[in-house]
Amino acid sequence: MMGLSACDEHELDKGDQPLATLKQQLAQKIMLDFRYYCHDEIAFDGDKASVCTQPMTELPEEIAQLIAGTDLGGVILFSDNLVSVEQIVTLNHQLAVAGQNAALKLPLFIAVDQEGGRVARLPRNHSTAFTGSMSIAATYAKHGVKYARLSGEIIGQELMATGFNLNFAPTVDVNVNPDNPVINVRSFGEDADQVAELATAQLKAMQSQQVLGTLKHFPGHGDTSVDSHTGLPLVAHNVSKIKQVDLAPFQYAIEQNVAHAIMTAHIQYPALDSSTFVSKDGKTMIKPATMSKAILTDLLREKMNFQGLVITDALDMKGISEFFDETQAVIETFNAGADIALMPIAIRSKGDIVKFEQLLSSLAQAVEQGALNREMVEQSFNRIWHAKQQLPSSTMTLKQKLEQARTVLANDKAKAIEQELSDQAITAIKGTGQLSAEVKHLHILFPDDNKCQALNNEIARYRAEIKITCSNTMTATVAEEIVRVKQADALIVANVTPKQSVVEMGGMADLPRLLEQLKKSKRSKTDQDNFIKELLTFAKQKGKETLFISLRMPYDAIDYRAIADHIIATYSYNQYEDSMGKQTGTVYQSIAKLLTGQIQAQGQLPVTIDTQKLKENATAGH
Fold this sequence. Notes:
The chain is an alpha/beta fold. 41% of the residues lie in helices and 13% in strands. The chain contains 23 helices and 22 strands. A 6-stranded mixed β-sheet has the order 15-20-19-18-16-17, with helices on both faces. A hairpin with a 5-residue loop joins strand 2 and strand 3 (50-51). It is globular.
């Protein structure tokens, strides 16, 4: 089994660990991203921060030297780094070789966020992305942990075959807040016991494929209405509710001896730690969990008996970077008990390599001056060293790795299971979701043209005689849509709430692009909801069949119960372009099957959408 076992709880004997200088120990505690990298001189923005948007898809010599020369502990890759099977395997092979060339000869952690569903970094047209955690939870009543296990195995197989050894998944946040902008369908639902069982099954299956998994985001991100990428959330639960809801899935996995890595959350939990810090702009604030020794050491390590690796969430997120400078952030989180600091600085050019070396020097100086606890640094290094001894070693050549990856990724068996999960998860909240045989002209109103085209393509497989017209909810006008609805026999409207967040796009580097997209939107969420209601109401008055599809969180379904004949939830919305240049996607195949009577909706809601119950849940335990 990957990671630390119960017999490994004690610190390694000094004779069992390699000799390492202080800087090498500190470098092992850092994980960097090389999402973008520019060889040449690059522009600077108004804050004098380097700007580079060239994805790193092969390893530059200077980055290889950074890894080998400093004994860097790990890297994390994003979608921009991952283009094709051959390219991914080659890049990860280059990274692994650079790690082997370091003085300590410790394997390099090569990490990725491959949760499945909303957050999947491997290219969807070359991998098995699945429809995500909440869709798995929708199958629980009928199938138990079957799809958690199968998805974990396949994700692990594909990551292993492409050269990853650390996956930042699964998410064990218990989504009890319908307004959660960043977790929602990334969660297995609102029932802590069910979340624990499903996540642990997926984690165990993933790690059976020799990929180390990570439970996140400790102590829980499920009841927040602020995205920690863009702000600092606060959870006001009392201690009893924290234990029963937020901590329960973490504790369960720890007790099952399968939790070997846990990622922190940049969230304030005053019931767990109400101590304060002074931010870099002089404000006094409650410490976030990532910086709290009471939470990471006293609670997680001592009370909950977690002996594995504690990894911070990305330190470039505004939940941290708004309040701490780079060096201070790393010192604070190391002193709190974190083993690995994720993305404390961005490496985008040769100049940033110098910044990293300066960071290591500053951290070493902090140890010498007593600002950073030396004993905790050594303990962390021991944990990292031992975890890396458990990583699989490979003697395969690059050619052999490429041959293996081609047979593993998106193979027929994996894709069949991916489709099976999507089919089994689709949930009928009202009606059956099936169109009547009399429908000859169908009008579809979707959040963007590609999603509409994907569904159009899939419906044509089963009922090619149906005439289909498509419109975009962000650009269509009421007058135009009334004309189209009059001409059709049925109207299908879909919505995606909440809107895309930076975590789906990749991270903080995408925030400017996301904000620009939001500016271009012609309708606010309220205006869009009213637009959808107006058209569904009109269609119903004209005797048309009406169907509403919740493509992400099903909470919004309750708003359309009175004006839609059918309401279905899919928990997923992703589409991609296939090898023939056509838009497709697992979930759109499922919707088409349901609409045309090929399958029935068998999923069950993993969250409550009743308005009154939501209000009661929101106020309980505060």
